[in-house]
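Trying the structure run again after the queue cleared.
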Amino acid sequence: MSSTDRSARHAARQETAAMNQQIEEARQRIEASKKNLKEIQLEKKDVREQTELQEEIRKGVLECPICTENYNSVDRIPRFFEKCGHTAYTHCFSCQVTTKDKEINERRLKKKNVFDLPCPMCRKIKRVMSDFDEQFPINEEVLVFAQASAK
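Done. Tokens:
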């Protein structure tokens, strides 16, 4: 074999080795990119789940659990049932009691416009008079949060 052939073979081997090195480096970059993509996808999934959880929490705080309407400072003021701490819109508390319930309670308690009102969520009883709004304190924290979220 001539020295030219040996030089050509040597050059071809060097070129092949260089190409194999480039291929290996490309494989490593592809693997690193795949790993990076998986990490990004996991982070994206975590962010999506956190966002969904925050939205559920926000809804849980800003919505009346009975009628699912958002609280506001005008006609859907969040009030809490002191016996248990549940919060709802006053109208929803009062809707739990029918006229018949009021009559039965009034006869039982022998007082006009006084009756036992169960919390719609846990059924704890609060003795109330017909004017509901003044008997349920405003849940100031929820109201402030609702006002801030409305902006």
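The radius of gyration is 35 Å. Worth checking whether this holds up in the mutant runs.
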